[in-house]
Amino acid sequence: MTAPASVVTLAGIGSYVPETVLTNAELAARVETSDEWITSRTGIRERRIASPDQAASDLGAEAARRALADAGVQAAEVDLIITATLSPDTVFPSTACLIQHQIGASRAWCFDIQAACSGFLYALDVAHQHLLTGRARTALVIGTEKLSAVTDWEDRTTCVLFGDAAGAAVLRAGGPGRGLMTTILGSDGSLGDLLMIPGGGSRRPTSAETLRNREHYIRMKGREVFKHAVTNMTQAAKEAIAASGLHHDDIAWVVPHQANARIIQAIAQRLELPQEKVFMNVQRYGNTSAASVGLALDELARSGRLRAGDNVVLVAFGGGFTWGASVLEWSRP
Ligand code: ACO
């Protein structure tokens, strides 16, 4: 235990996407769909697919290495690793423990968080609290998904949406600026069955029947999820901005969970922000669940468009239902 910290900053950020690209045209050869339908309904043009020998921990470990290099931090300095994923390598051990071993962060204590597509923000907030109280000085937050392993490739209503990726951030106590200011989190368990993997847990243990019913894959009532996603992400972002003592004019960038271009456009409109301030890369990666916010923030940082002092809103929504929004001051050039 060290002294409590008053400021926690994102000292480094990194991401990883597998090399294999799966285009809409390729998907249209597998299921009854078209590039026109997918593009007009979702904005997605292609997604990445991990190789058979890559699991969520492999994608996450590579993103973590890149975030550590970006921060100039050694793996041995990391106190805490939190991994958010809905496609873990195994039910246990946790994917965080597997990543710890791969990157050699032997001093860290490690655990996974399950908040579906909001997982990165849940993990960020838990790490933030550990750093504020002095329980840890350096934390690694990783969102990683091999969604191709839990996607029903015969279900056109879901298989066109998802992709594989990982995003990671190094959080450190101290640093210039305000750093991470506020995170708002919310959940509504009454709507859990609108977006879930029904089989394979203790409610419906894997059996010949669950496999035959394809219960080990993601199921989603897309239209209902869409409405809740827009409402809750907008509300969470507004609350987080207000709780940080800011106004929407003070926001340089919104980095939302990348589920659907139409959701992202609706949020921009409701937050009264021009579309140019709302980062979007869903067209190239699809919905990568817990990986998407870290991946998007890393791409934005690497594009050179983020400036020191910029106020950034991260916002997400996912299965559970869960949602969250964080406000931070970007403190690096
Ligand atoms: N190709 C062609 N037609 C299709 C496809 C497809 N890939 N998928 C569905 N359709 C058909 C449907 O069968 C339906 O046909 P019908 O009218 O004859 O019954 C029609 O298209 C309309 O289907 P909807 O589901 O109503 O289409 P919608 O406009 O709502 O778009 C979508 C579907 C893209 C899934 C949208 O609802 C969405 O993005 N929802 C939100 C997803 C989301 O945000 N998830 C967030 C979290 S994800 C997580 O946590 C893992």
Describe this structure in words.
With 333 residues, this protein is α/β, with parallel strands linked by helices. The protein has two domains: 8-173, Peroxisomal Thiolase, Chain A, domain 1, CATH 3.40.47; 180-329, Thiolase/Chalcone synthase (Peroxisomal Thiolase, Chain A, domain 1, 3-Layer(aba) Sandwich), CATH 3.40.47. 33% of the residues lie in helices and 24% in strands. It contains eleven helices and 13 strands. The chain has helices spanning 24-28, 35-42, 56-71, 95-103, 119-133, 156-159, 208-212, 222-243, 261-270, 282-285, 292-302; strands at residues 8-16, 20-23, 46-49, 80-84, 109-113, 138-146, 164-173, 180-187, 195-196, 219-220, 251-256, 311-318, 322-329. Strands 1-7-6-4-5 form a five-stranded mixed sheet, sandwiched between helices. A four-stranded mixed sheet has the order 8-13-12-11, with helices on both faces. It is globular, with a radius of gyration of 19 Å. The mean pLDDT is 97. Acetyl coenzyme *A (ACO) is lined by residues 33, 37-38, 41-42, 116-117, 156-157, 160, 195, 222-223, 225-226, 229, 259-260, 263, 287, 289, 317-319.
